[in-house]
Amino acid sequence: MSLSREETARLADLARLSLNDDELARIAHDLAEIIDYMEKLAGIDRADVEPLSHVLNTVNVYRDDRAEPSLSQEEALANAPDRQGEFFRVPRIIDTGEGSEA
Amino acid sequence: MRKVTERDDYEVVVGIEVHAELATESKVFCGCKTDFGARPNSQTCPVCLGMPGALPVLNRRALEYTIRAGLALNCSIAVRTKFDRKNYFYPDLAKGYQVSQYDIPVAHDGYIDIEVDGQPKRIRVRRVHLEEETAKLVHAGDDIISANQSLLDFNRSGIGLIEIVSDADMRSADEARAYLTKLRSILVAIGVSDCKMEEGSMRCEANVSVRLRGSKEYGTLVELKNIASFRAVHRAIQYESARQIDLVRSGGRVTRETRHWDDARGETAFMRSKEQAADYRYFPEPDLMPLEISREWVDEIKSGLPELPDARAARYAREFGLPASDAALIAESRELASFFDGVCDALAKAGAEAVDRTDGPREAAKWLVGDVSAALNASGIELSQSKLAPELLAELIGLVASGKISGKIAKSVFEEVFASGKRPGDVVRERGLVQISDAGQLAAIVQRVIEANPGPVSDYFAGKEKAITFLVGQIMKETRGRANPQETNRILREELAKRA
Prior knowledge:
The complex is a heterodimer. Chain A is mainly alpha-helical. In chain A, 36% of the residues lie in helices and 9% in strands. Chain A has helices at 5-14, 21-42, 73-77, and strands at residues 62-63, 83-84, 87-91. Chain A is flat. Chain B contains 15 helices and 17 strands. Classes of the chains: A mainly alpha, B alpha+beta. At the A-B interface, strand 1, helix 3 and strand 3 of A face strand 2, helix 1, strand 10 and strand 17 of B.
């Protein structure tokens, strides 16, 4: 299959990647090959194969609900590119493309 | 083109998504505290700040609470489940993805029973899944930060969050509000979330579409965000459904989009076009192990569920003969319900105080949905913050039942008890409010009033029954309302009969 330039540009945009024309063309080609490869799997009989959601064979790893010490405010903010008082400061996003879902 | 019809020819179709913060002590994937109102960025660590290399570990209680919520909402619980990454960029999401659940939610296919205008209805719950909270964005006033910057507090980041998605089963703003009210009462009753909309620990989004009545197909849906109260839900759905109906009636088309509810203006405004699930490029979260939920654990959680609001309301109606509406109102609020139980206990203990086993609770219910609720509304406080205690209300009910004070006096005693927390018996004594039931004492007052009012007395003999009301009023005035009403009536008629 092939991936259109628009589809590739849309994916790049979703991933916040800035690609020039050459890169777009190359990525479109590479992605198409990966998708072709995956589609080979689609042709195989998988009736008795459980979907794999993790490569490790472990389940149910928990911690108890107990509060542990947090970083201090200063430690938490130490790497902030920009801050104001007790807060991280970021450019304001005008919510048009996507936003917080939670 | 559709023919022009009235709005009544259309019906609104509503589905609701609710996010509720879990009331766990620590966050869902790290040990940071979840306290509301702490200093900004004081409850964070590399995991919830999204530092590279930090690894999440699931809080077992967060999963338990999700299962508990699922069971209380009559859902099936997944045997195998997992977490997925939902990828998008926004400043409140440090990692560039949210750990959530995509194709296998912890719980699925349940329902909530609601009632609107006496009509019962079952609203299906499609799924309940567990995810992580985002950080809190603060768009403060211009004097603090400039208009093109925002402040971030990561204390909220990583708190356990359940998302509860209903089917598009609601057909009015009233039904949507009833669904939310019931959902909140259940989540609070089972203790998984405090569901405080004003603190943001419960948030809701409504998917609204309209269609011609009788149509099988759904209209294009619009997602409403920024709904901060049950009242806002109701208003937003009413506004948005009217907007869509008017649009369709005038030949326009609804577009699939997300709209922002502006509570001050009372209208919705375009926010963005609705994103598709594929845009989030979900994939299984490699940093967290899959989950196998044993049926033994599910059974254990199920057997630990407390009495749910519906069952409690049914019990109140059955055991105490409460009217269904009072029973539902009390059972829906954990606070009212435990207060009511407290009053009933206190009444049972008082025992000998001439309060019948069901009359007492019925009186208690009347007080709670009436004067108590009114006093709370007027003072803007919660029952738990008030000075009223179950024992005090029980004592007041006992005073009325034993004939010490009249129902009318009780209301004025209640006001003072509510304001001061004093014992009703003390208030009655201090203010000299004890009811006059002594026949001799009452007869003397009745005779005085009859002699002082020859006009109304002769009106009564002329057949004007209403004159009695006037005479009773005069007796009440004379006794500052303390005359026992039944006794007064009886003696007054007796005395009048003597003069006939």
